[in-house]
Amino acid sequence: MNKVAIHHTEGSFSDCWVEFCKKNQIPFKLVDCYRSDIISQVRDCSIVMWHYHHADCKDVLFAKQLMLSLETAGKKVFPDFHTGWHFDDKVGQKYLLESVDAPLVSSYVFFEKDKALEWVKRTDFPKVFKLRRGAGASHVRLIKNRRSAKKLINQAFGKGFSQYDPGANLKDRLRKYKIGKNSLLDLLKGVARFGYTTDFDRVTGKERGYVYFQDFVPGNDYDIRIIVIGKRAFGIKRLVRSNDFRASGSGIIEYQKEHISEVTVGVAFEVAEKLKSQCLALDFIYSNGVPKIVEVSYGYTKGVYQNCPGYWDRELNWHEEPFNPEYWMVQGLLSDKGAEQEV
Ligand SMILES: Nc1ncnc2c1ncn2[C@@H]1O[C@H](COP(=O)(O)OP(=O)(O)O)[C@@H](O)[C@H]1O
Ligand SMILES: [Mg+2]
Fold this sequence. Notes:
- The protein is of the alpha+beta class.
- It folds into 3 domains: 4-78, Rossmann fold, CATH 3.40.50; 104-215, ATP-grasp fold, A domain (Dna Ligase, domain 1, 2-Layer Sandwich); 222-340, D-amino Acid Aminotransferase, Chain A, domain 1.
- The chain is 34% helix and 21% strand.
- It has helices at residues 14-23, 38-41, 57-72, 81-84, 90-99, 113-122, 146-156, 166-178, 184-192, 199-204, 262-274, 325-334, and strands at 4-7, 28-31, 47-50, 76-78, 107-110, 127-130, 140-143, 211-215, 222-229, 232-239, 253-254, 279-287, 290-297, 311-313, 318-319.
- The strands form 3 sheets. Strands 9, 10, 11, 12, 13, 14 and 15 form a 7-stranded antiparallel β-sheet that branches. It has a 4-stranded parallel β-sheet with strand order 2-1-3-4, sandwiched between helices. It has a 4-stranded antiparallel β-sheet with strand order 5-8-6-7, with helices on both faces.
- Helix 1 crosses helix 12, helix 6 runs antiparallel to helix 7 and helix 8 (166-178) runs antiparallel to helix 9.
- The chain binds adenosine-5'-diphosphate and magnesium ion.
- Adenosine-5'-diphosphate binds next to strand 6, strand 8, strand 12 and strand 13.
């Protein structure tokens, strides 16, 4: 019988993993991935699950390495190699999505300053500048002209970019406070944050030595996020912030099925299959009505999706019923053929 090792972090996927195992009498044990003896902790388990997080600097230091080591040793893991390697790495995703001919918004990366400056002379504007890491649109900017692009290139190959921008952080906290999504305490925390940076910034250091741009796709006042887990998918529509082009992290969400086209769901399934993902969140915008991917991710904030009224199966049939997507992750590992098999 498969025994499941779960690294538990409250508020993460693991809440549901533990609940699922308890409900279904599946043998499991809680383990601590941060302990040096983690490999011996999981010796008696054939499955290891850890919802590691892009913004936890401890996780960034070794989570992928640990999970890949266990996978090499023959254990089934979540997230596995294909699911996790490109997590929080938009540069990696560019190569991956281009490799499988996925409809990625045209993206450009440079590792040499002179090549970047040369490209700026020839290309048109606006463009979208992104750091390879980050979520909630925290490191995504609209670049309106050549001069701004050059400035960013100089910074990318000079002092680099901090992972944490206290001004932008406070601005977003104030916006969320105004629309009732944040408490006054959350807002005040943003002020306090001017005094010290984040652990993440201290540990991971500056982003530098590369520069990444995408074509700006105009006319999108929302993005669509579809999450594919095995043979099922669900999604939300996220509206952009006011006077802004960025939807992720806005906190303004529509859940009704009518907001999401079947074509988009179909593309999401196809790309998730090509990437061999156990779980893939895809962010879509639309260019003349055609869905284009801006980024992908294995992780998502589970609470946000609890209001989804249903899900699609692989044949794009809609199932309007309560569901627990984090249960599907465990079911996928327990089924013999992994997440590919209907469970
Ligand atoms: N190339 C683009 N053209 C137009 N809008 C974009 C583009 N890329 C991103 N966006 C908008 O910015 C938001 C954040 O971009 P994304 O690449 O998903 O970064 P993050 O990892 O911060 O969510 C998206 O939700 C989308 O609304
Ligand atoms: Mg996004």
